[in-house]
Amino acid sequence: MLWNAVPTQLAKENKKFIYKLIKKGAGAKEYELALTWLTDCGLVHKITRITKPGIPLKA
Q: Phi/psi zone of residue 49: left (φ > 0), alpha (ψ -120 to 50 degrees), beta?
């Protein structure tokens, strides 16, 4: 479910990932373990959104 939702949601103009679109009433807590697993496997990359770049930024 989560794996199939990633490209669909990120293809939209608003790049925020919305858990409620996967399943009605769902939240981040419900998908936390699955998202961590996908990140650890290198299948997805979690990017932190910033408003002002500063030092240190990881390359």
A: beta
Closest by Cα among 42, 35, 40 to 5: 35
Is 47 inside any structural domain? no
Domain total of the chain: 1
| Count of CB atoms situated within 10 Å of the CB of 16 | 8
Domain that holds residue 30: 2-40
pTM: 0.65
Element (H or E) spanning 29, and its range?
Answer: helix 28-40
pLDDT digits (tens, 9 = 90+) for 1-59: 788 888 888 888 877 788 888 888 888 888 889 889 999 999 988 887 778 777 766 65
Does a structural domain hold residue 53? no
